[in-house]
Write a structure and sequence with these properties.
heterotrimer; A alpha+beta; B alpha+beta; C alpha+beta; A: alpha+beta; Ribosomal Protein S5, domain 2; five-stranded antiparallel beta sheet; B: alpha+beta; six-stranded mixed beta sheet; about 30% helix; elongated; disordered C terminus; Ribosomal_Su5_D2-typ_SF (chain C); cytoplasm (chain C); Exosome_comp_Rrp42_subfam (chain C); nucleus (chain C)
């Protein structure tokens, strides 16, 4: 199903017992997520909402038992899905989503896991037929200083237009943006941005952080980015999600004839 | 939380009557397993086992820790089996069911207590540093016989896993990454494999129907079950028959003999799958496997 | 008390509408109550502030005598206590100290190879560990018991903030063999590990900002005893007569949180809803909000050290180190820029208050 080398490997409904499921593998970092969606189901009385469906998201790590990191991941996914799922269509029910981290280069890195988790969850919700207001897609971008040595697939590395005041950037000092970085590129990156947009271009989630290496203290002064650079990056992320992301969803669902 | 739907009377009668005549719903023989499919991941120690629609993932991971005070020569090995709603919506996170307890107890007895894994081989520096292995089992889909599937997954993952090479010089320990030194397999003394029999009433001759590798439907209808863990040499590692319908001892002995036969077949299957995976990884170069060299040729 | 005036049916006259007191209206229909306030011109909030105004806060440091450092932050009705305790972590032979030496380093490839999951995240430093406790009776929503979803999420967020900002200089946490003279030649025998406990005493919204400020203030005012390895006893010994502060970065970063509340678009041809940004939400506004935006930024004050009251919004140079937006879909990209300016001015106030607190003797 990969039309371009950057398209993720998607396999729909691999789990026969779930209402909807999806397996998603990120092409560059080989992070594999498997999600299952069941719903609308019977809900525990204490979780019942009178005019909305309760959404429950459980993230299960590949190694070890779930800890605070998994709770945070499920809370981020929950808030994103709250704005996508039409919960008033099935009040007093439960929509249960379980995401299993099957394979990851670094099982504890939040930036590497968030994008595949969100994309996989959105696809399995579509397969399960849960009514949704719109679709969304997520992309992970990393800003790296110095393009040397980054061997990316075609289309993965790009520069933002209008970046830099003078034209005197050498290869070492130019800043490039890498899409779907793997953990090696991420360890060299200055900042990591997970952006989720809806099909209409609304921002659903931003998780941007400064992630350069260092031992802290005074060496950390002067890190960070300017807000105008971020806004340019967000525009690019919006374009990727709204055009390519929606295209990926459409292609993946094309032969299913679900609707 | 939703419960599994109760089996209707019509379904129950149909299945049991068919079994009386030696017929199973999915057309299998009463004493045959479903097709076992093993696939490995990119990392060593990761295996995906499918038994029909039942699917279990197993992943082995290791880290270096300080050993226990009373066991300074041994490493540690823990098996984590947390069932979640992915396998079936009737499972809840944090609220283990009877199946959870039975499963972890059986795996504990079969694999850990039978010393399938030689813990002393995990020692790096006595009383200071040992390897601590951890097996995480993820249950993805439940269509019966989770116990056997989980056991096969754990054993296969252990046989597939490779431990990084460690060199000790004086006080310093160096763990070599896989790119520097080829990692070594674990020291497994034997491969215990569980076989579960389900008892579903008596057949036309008055003998108990012992079904092997029950599906979820058959498990819901069974009156009793027995899990016996055997290795390929026919040595019994554990037997567990907790309650359920009373079965004659002669029948249980027959089951045990059948289990020993089946395990030989499963063992061969695992060996073949591991070998095929090695071939794919090394693209045909098996020399290093035979000699166990730890130097990089280049 | 609701009053219903019933008059005898006199033909065309409509019965008068039901009337409620404002407090009853707020309880019955909290979302509508908030919306009506915000639709006023100019928009006001039920707590009296305007949307871009944050609460006043007070800071007290070093009030806990048994902790190595502490701070109490009060922002409106939200009150947070933070205590810092340093514990000594000895490096055993064979341990790899590189994971303590850097923030955000990639996991060492050997550990990576065996797929282990290091404590606190293999790629995040494990020396500074925050923990948030909400089951203190601060709010009805968080009863006694193990930490629930919000407490766990906050602990993870604060841990991420410590790593993103690289607040503490990890080199300064090293414990050496012997005296301080030739540090480059000496062996590292251990590290100070900082346990940060954040207890919420009273919760009225926006605990993240208060907790982070308390952590920064507590770290800035902490003093650790001088520790070194004693070769005879083969243990780390502390000298109670010599204390040194924890070395932090110069430009301190602070978080500012905004809540976005949907209001119907005012008559101007627009249909639907827009989101109004509320700076420093209290718990009522947080419950009604559909999205939350948090910005972590440092303000480059430069030469404007003296007169903080003269700082105007547009003049602050600010670098952003983290942006988190979750929930909802109404935030516009342009609104983020306005938020950054508000965050910058709040950060300036935080720095000013912290500087004043540092100057007063303990």
């Amino acid at each position: 199903m990969a039309s371009s080398p950057l398209a993720p490997e998607i396999s729909l409904n691999p789990l026969p017992q779930a209402d909807g499921s999806c397996q998603y593998t990120c092409p560059t970092s080989r992070t594999t997520i498997l999600t299952s969606v069941n719903g609308p189901l019977e809900v525990r009385p204490k979780d019942e909402l009178p005019s909305h469906a309760t959404i429950e998201v459980i993230v299960k790590p590949g190694i070890g038992v779930a800890g605070v990191r998994e709770t945070r991941l499920s809370s981020l996914i929950h808030s994103t899905l709250q704005s996508l799922i039409l919960t008033n269509h099935h009040p007093r029910t439960l929509i249960q989503i379980v995401a299993q981290i099957v394979q990851a280069e670094d099982h504890t890195s939040l930036p590497l896991l968030l994008t595949p988790l969100l994309n996989c969850t959105i696809l399995s919700l579509l397969i399960a037929g849960i009514p949704m207001r719109t679709v969304g897609w997520s992309v992970h971008l990393a800003v790296v200083q110095g393009a040397k040595g980054i061997k990316g697939v075609e289309g993965q590395v790009f520069k933002l237009e209008g970046g830099g005041d003078d034209g005197m950037e050498t290869e070492e000092s130019e800043e490039v943006v890498v899409r779907n970085p793997n953990s090696e590129i991420l360890s060299r990156a200055k900042s990591s941005h997970t952006l989720t947009f809806s099909k209409e271009g609304d921002i659903l989630l931003i998780e941007s952080l400064e992630c350069s290496q260092g031992s802290g203290g005074e060496s950390a002064d002067g890190q960070g980015w300017d807000i105008s650079d971020f806004l340019k990056l967000a525009e690019e992320g919006k374009r990727i999600c709204c055009e390519e992301g929606v295209e990926i969803i459409r292609e993946a669902l094309a032969d299913r004839k679900v609707f | 939380m939703p419960k599994e739907p109760e089996i209707s009377l019509a379904e129950k009668t149909f299945v049991l009557e068919a079994l009386k005549q030696n017929l199973r719903i999915d057309g299998r023989d009463i004493h045959s397993f479903r097709d076992i499919q093993l696939s490995f991941g990119d990392d060593y120690g990761f295996v995906d086992v499918r038994l029909g629609k039942t699917r279990v993932l197993a992943r082995i991971s290791a880290e270096v820790i300080k050993p226990r005070q009373d066991r300074p020569f041994e490493g540690t090995f823990t098996i984590s089996t947390e069932m979640g709603p992915m396998a079936s919506p009737s499972f809840e996170v944090g609220r283990p069911t009877n199946l959870d307890h039975t499963l972890s107890r059986l795996l504990e007895k079969s694999i850990r207590r039978s010393t399938a894994l030689d813990l002393e081989s995990l020692c790096i520096v006595t009383a200071q540093r040992v390897w601590s292995l951890r097996a995480d089992l993820h249950f993805l889909s439940h269509d019966g016989n989770l116990i056997d599937t989980a056991c096969i997954a754990t054993i296969t993952a252990l046989a597939h896993f490779r431990l990084p090479v460690v060199t000790v010089s004086g006080e310093d320990i160096t763990i070599h990454p896989v790119t520097e030194r080829v990692p070594v397999p674990l020291s497994l003394l034997h491969w215990p494999i569980c076989v579960t029999f389900s008892f579903l009433g008596e057949d036309e001759d008055g003998e108990m129907v012992c079904v092997l590798d029950a599906t979820a439907q058959e498990e819901a209808l069974r009156e009793g079950d027995m899990t016996i863990t055997v290795n390929k040499n026919g040595e019994v590692c554990q037997i567990s028959k907790s309650g359920g319908v009373a079965v004659e001892a002669e029948t249980l002995m027959k089951c045990a003999r059948m289990a020993a036969e089946k395990v030989k077949g499963i063992d061969k299957l695992i060996t073949t799958a591991l070998r095929d995976d090695e071939v794919t990884r090394n693209k045909g170069n098996l020399d290093w496997l035979k000699e166990g060299r730890s130097e990089n040729e280049r | 008390m609701p009053t219903l005036i019933r008059q005898p049916n006199s033909g065309e006259r409509q019965p008068p509408p039901l009337t409620f007191s404002t407090s009853l209206f707020r309880q019955i229909s909290p979302a509508l109550y908030l919306q009506r306030h915000l639709l006023n011109n100019p928009p006001t909030r039920p707590n009296g502030r305007n949307p871009s105004q944050c609460r006043d806060f007070t800071l007290t440091t070093n009030s806990l005598s048994h902790a190595h450092g502490s701070a109490v932050v009060r922002s409106g009705d939200t009150a947070v206590v933070c205590g810092i305790r340093g514990e000594i972590l000895t490096i055993a032979p064979g341990d790899d100290p590189s994971r303590f030496e850097s923030y955000n380093g990639s996991p060492t490839s050997a550990i990576h190879a065996c797929g282990s999951r290091g404590a606190g995240g293999a790629s995040w430093g494990g020396l500074v560990v925050p923990n948030v406790e909400l089951s203190t009776g601060c709010s009805k929503k968080y009863p006694l018991g193990p930490p629930g979803g919000l407490a766990q999420t906050l602990s993870d967020q604060l841990h991420e903030l410590v790593n993103v900002t690289k607040l503490v200089s990890l080199d300064s946490l090293r414990i050496y063999d012997g005296d301080n003279d030739t540090t480059s030649k000496m062996k590292i025998k251990g590290y100070w590990s900082l346990y940060i406990d954040v207890l919420c005493i009273s919760l009225d919204g926006n605990i993240l900002d208060a907790a982070w400020y308390a952590i920064v203030a507590a770290l800035k005012s902490s003093k650790l005893p001088f520790a070194s390895w004693n070769q005879i006893e083969e243990r780390v010994f502390c000298d109670p007569s010599r204390y040194h502060p924890i070395s932090l970065r110069q430009s301190l970063p602070f978080t500012t949180t905004f809540a976005l509340v949907p209001v119907p678009a005012s008559a101007g041809g627009e249909v639907g809803e827009v989101a109004l940004l509320l700076n420093d939400p209290d718990s009522y506004e947080e419950d009604e909000a559909c999205e939350i935006l948090t910005i972590l930024s440092t303000t480059d004050l430069g030469t404007a050290q003296g007169d903080f009251s003269q700082l105007s919004l547009g003049k602050l140079r600010t670098r952003v180190e983290k942006i988190e937006k979750r929930g909802g879909w109404k935030l516009g990209i342009s609104q983020i820029e306005d938020c950054t300016q508000l965050a910058a001015s709040k950060a300036a106030r935080y720095i000013h208050t912290l500087a004043k607190e540092q100057l007063t003797p303990m």
